[in-house]
Each structure stands twice: as structure tokens, then as C-alpha cells.
Amino acid sequence: MASARGEFGSRFGFVMAAAGSAVGLGNIWGFPTQAASNGGAAFLLVYLVLAFTLAYPALMAELIIGRHAHANAVTALGELSNNRLQRRIGRTTGTLGFIVASLILSFYAIVAGWMMAFCLSSFATVFGGDEIASWLTSFGFVRNELGTLVFMGLTIAIIAKGVQDGIEKWSARLMPMLLITLVALVAYVLTLDGAGEGLKVYLLPDFHRALSPDLILNALGSAFFSLSLGVGTMLIYGSYLDDTQNLPLVGGLVTAVDIGIAVLAGFLVLPAMYVALHNGVEIYTAAGELISEDTLIFTVLPGLFGTMGLAGALVSIFFFFLMTIAALTSSISMLEVPVAYAVEEHGVNRRTGAYAIGGAIALVSTLILLNFDSLFGLVITVTTRYSQPLIGFVFCIYVGWIWHRDQLLQELRKGNPAIERGLFWKIWPWWVRIVCPTIILAIFGQSLLG
Ligand code: PHE
Fold first, then answer.
1. Alpha-carbon distance 392 to 22, whole Å?
2. Is 105 in the pocket of ligand 1 (CB under 6 A)?
3. Of 16, 152, 382, 399, which one has the fewest beta carbons inside 10 Å?
4. Residues 131-174: tens digit of each pLDDT
């Protein structure tokens, strides 16, 4: 079966694809603004600790299940046990995973469409098309729908091409581009007046805010979303890895890139906010908190770019281009989850599957756009706040409690014969068995209560 499936051609290709999935809108605007309003470097520290103690072990659980089964999440979880009930729960969890992945994509494509529209709008500004530029940045159904459809079209086109020619090839092209654009933007913004103030806010730790229990749980949730956990994305990418790869090492690389880019994005967004303040753009809410999330991206930053003339339009093009790339390498990983399932379990042709499922998801996006006020926030909450941690919990339980320890060891030995003697094998098995599920339950409990 493994030979008929796609497979990543190189370790670099895999790391770019998996890091591409992980690095998304969450990293570039979620992380920096959270850090800004929650204690700067102290939040960063909490985030780093959580990423390595929770997200990395949970990522490993998905990669290992995927690589072992060389199959999609439904088949893979169904195969881990001989017990009928456990098999059924496994298959149901896998099924829920691809439904959640599809729903996440349905709102993600809308947001990514806005990013593309803002990027094009700045192009239009440069070439004097002010009317079209302002249409592209104003909230309306036609603009939203067009943006979503174009973005979904790109996602579908890549997934239709398969693992090596689609996912790997495009991730290996887009991720270096993303890094170069990000570094260039950071370097430029740091030269502007006011940037130093933002750096201070980002880098001076205020432990008082960062250590509140509420915030720690929040940071946990973001770390989870940020590494694309709890929907079967990392599981399916792991299933395309060959048996010679050292899993703890490649998982570590992916985690490091994800965190590295989030931290780097902090050096762009925070200074940019204070440059905006310096140029007269409002960056605080009435309650005195820093403006964040959608208002930041679609009001404050464009406000800043608007005060900078031609340079601002160029920076804006690069910034929203960066956002679009980050979103695209994530969205392909979301679409791959249901497509892989349809191809493997139902013998659907990959191209047909990609177009049909992508089309169906675009239809869901349209429904969301038609009922924006009631559906948009709801879909985000249900998928990212509730479903992701819960499915991630089941993954950890399957690896920690249901899968036989000897088989786990055998799987890990494939790419690293000396694994038993290393620190990873001494800590990770009980960590994923006890610590991860406990922490995830805590997040989930908090979500339910809060
Ligand atoms: N990790 C992506 C981000 O930070 C989001 C994502 C979630 C991607 C789930 C795939 C699956 O934006």
C-alpha cells in the first residue's frame, strides 16, 4: 500500500511542508499581538515552554501514528488496536478530524481571501487605480466571495498535483520566499521612527501578566493551533515520510521553525504598531489595551502603510503577500486531510477528489459569508477552541494507552536505532501518556467554562 501512495522526496521537503502547515496566520498576527498585550518577553517565555512541553510531544504522537500506518487518520487510528470498540472510536475520531480540518479551511480561505485583496489593493494604489483599491479593501459579499474562490482555487490546484509535485514542491518554494520577505520587512520596519518603542514592549518581560493561569491556558491553545494539531494534518504528513527518517529530529525541526517564525514576526508587528502610533494612527482601544486581531491587520497596519506614501504601498504589498503565502502553505495541509481519506478509503481519483471536496468547502465558505455575523465566529470557536484539543487528546490516548509500547519503540527505531538510550525515549512515552492528556483536558475544561 505504501508504494502506491505519495511520499515526500527529501527531509528538507518534509520539513518545509510541515513547517509550512504550522506557520500560518496564527504565527504572524496571533502570536505577536498576544505577546504585546500579555507581558512581552514573559509571554514569549511561557509560549516557548509550552510549545516544547505540550505541542512538540503531541506533534510527535501524530507523526508516529501516521508514519507507522502510512495511511490517513481514519485508517491509521482504526488499525492501532484489535479491540472492536477502540477501532470504532479510532475511526470516528479520524472522521471528525477531517470534518474539522475542512471547516477550519472554510473560514481560513475567507481570511486568506482578504489578505489577497489587501495585497492587490496596494498594487492598484501604486498604479493609480484608487477606486478599485478602495473596493478591494471594503467589506462586501462580492469581494469576499471572489477572494475566497481564488484562494480555494490555488489550494485545490496544488493538492490535485499530489504529495511531491504539489505539496512538497510548492512548500519548498514558498517557505524560503516567506522567510526572505519576513526578514526584509523586519529589517525595514526597524529603521523607522517609533520602532524602538515597540521593541521595548516586545522584549521587556512583565511576569505579572504572563503568569496568570488564564493566560497560560490561552497560550496553550495557541501553541496547539499553531502547530496544526488535532485535525490529522500532521498525521497525514507523517504518513508520507519514509522509514529512514528520525522522527524526533524532524518533529523538533518543524517545531523550531514554527516558533522561530512566530518570534520573528513579533519583531515586525510590534515595532510596526509603534511606528503607526508615531505617525498618528491609533493603536489602543478605548479600554487602553493594544488593538489586536482583525482590527490590527485590516485597520492599524493599512493605516500605517497609508501614512508612508509609495514606500507604504510597497511594504503593504510585501506584507499581505507574506500573509497569503503563510495561509496557502497551511490551507493545502488542511485540504489534504479529507482528500487523502477519499483517495485511500474510497478509491477516488486525487484530482477529482481535490476539486470536489475543495468545491464543497468553498460552498461552505459561501454559506458562512452569506450569514457572516452568525456563522464566522461560531465556526472558529467550535473548531479551534473545542474540537482541536479534544481530537488531539484522543491522539495522545491512542499513542500513550492503546498502542503497544514495543510497537511504538519499533516504529521509532526505524530512523534511529539507538533511540532507547536517548532522552526522548526516557521522557516522551510517559509524557504523552499522562502529562499531555492532562494538560489538554485542562484547556478543554477551561474552554467549556470560559
Ligand atoms: N497552523 C496554522 C496556523 O498557524 C493553522 C492550521 C490549523 C493549519 C490546523 C492546519 C491545521 O495558522
1. 15
2. no
3. 382
4. 999 999 999 999 999 999 999 999 999 999 999 999 999 999 99
Judging by beta carbons within 10 Å of its beta carbon (0-12, 13-18, 19+), is residue 184 exposed, middle or buried? middle
Q: Domain of 328?
A: 2-449
CA angle 116, 122, 126 (to 5 degrees): 145
What span, in angstroms and rounded, lies between the C-alpha atoms of 116 and 124?
12
Q: 290 forms bridges with which residues in the sheet?
A: 284
Q: For residue 291, is it left (φ>0), alpha (ψ between -120 and 50) or beta?
A: beta
In the predicted structure, residue 127 carries a pLDDT above the cut 50: yes
Amino acid (1-letter code) at residue 400: G
Identify residue 441 by its one-letter amino acid code.
Answer: L
Report CA(50)–ligand 1 centroid distance (Å).
Answer: 17
C-alpha of 417 from chain center: 31
> Which residues, in sequence order, are CB contacts of 405 under 8 Å at separation 6+?
429
Amino acid at 361: I
Pair 259, 43: CB distance under 8 Å: no
Residue 4: band (very low, low, confident or very high) from pLDDT cuts 50, 70, 90: low
Containing 93, the helix (H) or strand (E) segment is: helix 84-126
pLDDT at 2: 38
Would you call 310 exposed, middle or buried from its count of C-beta atoms within 10 A (0-12, 13-18, 19+)? exposed
Which atom of ligand 1 lies closest to the CA of 229? 9
> Tell me, what's the pLDDT at 3?
43
Nearest-CA residue for atom 7 of ligand 1: 228
Contact by Cβ (8 Å): 443, 389: yes
Residue nearest to atom 10 of ligand 1 (CA): 228
How many domains does the chain divide into?
Answer: 1
Q: Do 141 and 358 contact (CB within 8 A), yes or no?
A: no
Ligand 1 contact via 171 beta carbon (within 6 Å): no
User: Ligand 1, from 228, 229, 324: best to mutate by most atoms within 8 Å of Cβ?
Assistant: 228
For position 296, what pLDDT does the model report? 81
The enclosing domain of 126 has a CATH number of: 1.20.1740.10
